[in-house]
């Protein structure tokens, strides 16, 4: 294992924040995987899974079984990790700007097209290397204005030339679920089966440029733009893995999740040896991210759930009640679509307009920005 320390530019006098990237394997196969934990820094289960990954990767490396390169960041966001506000961890948004740490990465397709036009040829493998080279050059030209922009630049540069990118998160209270690009359905289904995912949410573009999407989306967009002229392979599988709920920091769960992630890397050609896991039956069918119904509180009140994460709900089913203690109004919150309730908030007081639960419906009906803030 090789360990590298990356310093972020100081946000204020006398401070420096560091990231550590761990590099495993021989790199002989030419394939690379990138995994980081807790980009939303208050999503702690991802960091525990990363610890189990580190231990297993060290053992696999000692046996000479990692023929590719696996890059692991056990802690992806020291900025958000430091934001403790009077006992409450505030790790989802940058306190200095209010921006989500998993939004506003550099979407490179339009800038890549004119750079690639005179370079591409008929060899898809050479074209793949050209795309990666030019994408990394564009990222190197980015001049970050804030510490958080520098963090985003660093993460994107570490991942841009990877064949597999896994962004480990969790939700408030949730079952295992995944987000991936629609063109990546086949490998996403494999990953979901290995992890036991109960929702697999697919979209070509979810809005606001989250991390995983900006790494993988360029490939299908460039392939479509240059179709009939230059072959562009789908050279990167990227996904956001939501590791259940925010309090589920359990060694048993984390060890199982780490093994499943490594089994996926093995199926992707980065690890040799006997199969780490058989491929289980899928626990869900993929559904469009446009089909997710976010249930929203129409007024403030006490939130009492009638359904739990993992429950199947039919259209019209009661999911929660909202009770206003000022006037004793009880408002039922009902699903308007049938599907799996895969996540809900952990707090039990809802403000007006707050999203309180998410149901994975099978039919697309939303458009625009599909992710929560």
UniProtKB/TrEMBL annotation:
Signal peptide coordinates: none
Keywords of the record: Hydrolase, Metal-binding, Zinc
TM segment ranges: none
PANTHER family per record: BLL3975 PROTEIN
Domain Succinylglutamate desuccinylase/Aspartoacylase catalytic: start-end pairs: 30-185
Keyword Hydrolase: yes
UniProt protein name: Succinylglutamate desuccinylase/Aspartoacylase catalytic domain-containing protein
Cofactor dependency: Zn(2+)
InterPro entries: AstE_AspA_cat, N-alpha-Ac-DABA_deacetylase
Record carries keyword Zinc: yes
One Gene Ontology MF term: hydrolase activity, acting on ester bonds
Species classification: Bacteria, Pseudomonadati, Pseudomonadota, Betaproteobacteria, Burkholderiales
């Amino acid at each position: 294992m090789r360990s590298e320390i990356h310093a972020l530019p100081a946000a204020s006098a006398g401070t420096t924040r560091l990231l550590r990237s761990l590099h495993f394997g021989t790199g002989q196969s030419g394939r690379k995987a990138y995994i980081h934990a807790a980009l939303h820094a208050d999503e702690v289960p991802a960091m525990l899974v990363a610890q189990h990954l580190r231990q297993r990767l060290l053992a696999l490396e000692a046996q000479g079984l990692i023929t590719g390169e696996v890059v692991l960041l056990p802690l992806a966001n020291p900025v958000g990790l430091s934001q403790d506000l009077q006992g409450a961890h505030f790790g989802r948004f940058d306190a200095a700007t209010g921006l989500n740490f998993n939004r506003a990465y550099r979407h490179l397709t339009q800038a890549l097209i004119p750079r690639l036009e005179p370079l591409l040829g008929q060899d898809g493998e050479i074209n793949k290397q050209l795309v990666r080279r030019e994408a990394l050059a564009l990222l190197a030209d980015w001049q970050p204005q804030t510490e958080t922009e520098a963090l985003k630049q660093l993460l994107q540069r570490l991942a841009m030339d990877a064949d597999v990118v896994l962004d480990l998160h969790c939700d408030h209270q949730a079952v295992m679920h995944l987000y991936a690009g629609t063109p990546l359905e086949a490998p996403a289904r494999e990953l979901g089966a290995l992890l036991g995912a109960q929702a697999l949410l697919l979209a070509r573009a979810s809005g606001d440029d989250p991390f995983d999407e900006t790494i993988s989306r360029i490939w299908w967009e460039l392939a479509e733009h240059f179709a009939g002229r230059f072959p562009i392979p789908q050279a990167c599988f990227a996904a956001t893995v939501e590791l259940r709920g925010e309090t589920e920091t359990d060694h048993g769960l984390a060890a199982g999740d780490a093994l499943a992630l490594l089994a996926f890397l093995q199926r992707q050609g980065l690890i040799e040896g006997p199969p780490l896991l058989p491929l289980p039956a899928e626990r869900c069918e993929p559904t469009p991210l446009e089909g997710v119904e976010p249930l929203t509180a129409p007024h403030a009140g006490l939130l009492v759930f009638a359904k739990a994460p993992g429950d199947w709900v039919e259209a019209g089913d009661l999911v929660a009640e909202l009770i206003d203690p000022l006037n004793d109004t009880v408002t039922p919150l009902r699903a308007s679509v049938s599907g799996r309730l895969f996540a809900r908030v952990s707090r039990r007081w809802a403000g007006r307009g707050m999203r309180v639960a998410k149901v994975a419906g099978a039919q697309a009906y939303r458009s625009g920005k599909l992710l929560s803030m």
